[in-house]
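Late entry, written up from scratch paper. The run itself happened at the end of the previous shift, but nothing got recorded in the book at the time, so transcribing now.
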Amino acid sequence: MNTVRLLIIALSVCWALLIALAEETSSEPSEKSTACEVVPMPVGGMTALAGNVVYPETARKEGRQGAVHVKVRIAPSGEIETTEVIQSVAEDLDRAAVEAICKTEWTPGSSKGQPAACEVVLPIQFKLDVDKSKTKDK
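Output as recorded:
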């Protein structure tokens, strides 16, 4: 449960990064992308996205942590069109990040008041709860 709280905090803190990267990405839009004035948002907020993140058991046992950055193209319908890991941590964490993004329902971005295809970069933070291990040692 503490891991989920840490993910929510990490995702909230990284939201400013997401907006900045979305603006940077949309300044050079791909063929069908539009410069988005309003970035896509998870339905239910960042808590909904964090709730879909499943920390792989092997990564947890091996103590692997880090931030996976995923570039996501969200259609005007709110559907995920493409995902691309642009900063990897490990294959299982990368896969867990992409799966969480794809499981999440999205409100599309918009341009000039109309839904638009937008690309954003989402940082998904995987961090183990080290406080529990310190408590066990005492």
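The two ends are 21 Å apart (CA to CA).
(Scratch paper discarded after transcription.)
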